[in-house]
Predict the 3D structure of the following.
Amino acid sequence: MSDGNRSASKAGGGDKVQPVEDFVRERNAALTALDMDYARAHAPFPMSDEVLLLGMHKARYECTGIAPEARRASRTWLEARGSRRIGNLPWPDGDELPGAAPTQGASR
């Protein structure tokens, strides 16, 4: 039976279980810093650093726990390389971020 407040992680070669809050904190710090060592350790299979960095920018853009400035920087980085969002979704108009409340005066 699994504990809803724990996350299984096999990074580092073991079957350690950590609280979800710790996982989210570590993940958000890694995405904010674009920590390639973290990305390599958590990749489901070996892949190039270029692909890992692309994935980290996509995840950072979508993650509501990341500072808006970092999320927008990832969008700029991705757009400069002709990339789309996770799931090939189109970019929102203007400066809106996924998962963010619409800015005051914005149309819905």
About this structure: The first helix runs from residue 20 to 33. The longest strand covers residues 6-9. Residues 1-12 have pLDDT under 50 and may be disordered. Residues 93 and 107 are 11 Å apart (CA to CA).
